[in-house]
Amino acid sequence: MPITAFNSHADGLEPSLRSREHFITNLDLDDDRLWVPYAEGIWFQPCSFNVTSGGFSVVLKGLPGSMVGTHYHVGTVHGYTMRGHWRYLEHDWIAKPGTYIYEPAGEAHTLVITDDSPEPMMTLFVVGGGLIYLDKPSNGNFAAYEDGFTLLELTRQHYRDVSLDPKKLDALIR
Ligand SMILES: [Fe+2]
C-alpha cells in the first residue's frame, strides 16, 4: 500500500555499503513468491529502486478487469507492454504486447487491465519520480503517495513475509 503519512526516508544502507556501480537483475515471472501484492489483482516485481530521484522500475502484473487507482506523476514514465491488454481511462488507446508508452511529468491517469485481455497484463514501467494517488479521477485531492523508498519498504516487508532474503533487494538500490 502507498503511504499517507510522511517521515524522512532512507534506503537503510550504511553509506559504505551503497553501490554506485551498474548492475543486472534477473526476474522470474513464473515464481509466485517474487510478485509483491500491490492492489486487488495487481502485483509487481522490482527491477530497481532509484532513491536518488525517488523513482523506480518494476514489472507490473494485473489480472483482466483489475485496476491501479487514479494517480498523478511528478516525473516521467516509460512503459513497455510484454503481455496482455491494458489502457488508461484518460486515453483512447489500448496497449498490447509490444506497445511502448512515454508519459511526460504532470499526468494523472487510471490504469485498467481490459476485461477482455487474453492473459494477465505484464508491463515494464520505468518511473522517474514519485506519484500521488488521488481520491477521485477529476480534480482529485491527495489520497496516498508512492516512490522508490515506499516501494522498497513494501518489497522488503513482502520478502520477510514469504521468507525471502530482503538483503537481496539491496543490490537494486541506487
Ligand atoms: Fe502511472
Keywords:
Jelly Rolls; 5-stranded antiparallel beta sheet; 1 helix; binds fe (ii) ion
What would you note in describing this structure?
The chain has one helix at 148-161; strands at residues 36-39, 42-50, 55-62, 67-73, 77-83, 86-88, 100-103, 108-113, 121-127, 131-134, 142-146. A hairpin with a 7-residue loop joins β10 (131-134) and β11 (142-146). The chain has a 6-stranded antiparallel β-sheet with strand order 1-2-3-9-5-7. It starts with 35 loop residues before the first strand and ends in a 13-residue tail after the last helix. The protein is globular and about 50 Å long. Helix content is 8%, strand content 37%. The longest helix has 14 residues, at 148-161. It has 174 residues and is mainly beta. The mean pLDDT is 95. The chain has one domain (42-163): Jelly Rolls (Sandwich), CATH 2.60.120. It binds fe (ii) ion. Fe (ii) ion binds next to β4.
Give the topology, please.
Elements: E1 36-39, E2 42-50, E3 55-62, E4 67-73, E5 77-83, E6 86-88, E7 100-103, E8 108-113, E9 121-127, E10 131-134, E11 142-146, H1 148-161
Antiparallel strand pairs: 1-2, 2-3, 3-9, 4-8, 4-10, 5-7, 5-9, 6-8, 10-11
Distance between the termini: 22 Å
CATH class: Mainly Beta
Shape descriptor: globular
Domain count: 1
Strand residues, percent: 35-45%
Main β sheet profile: 6 strands, antiparallel
What's the CATH superfamily, by name? Jelly Rolls
Q: Please tell me the overall pLDDT.
A: 95
CATH architecture, please?
A: Sandwich
State the strand order across the main sheet: 1-2-3-9-5-7
Number of DSSP strands? 11
Task: Report low-confidence residues grouped into runs of 5 or more.
Answer: none
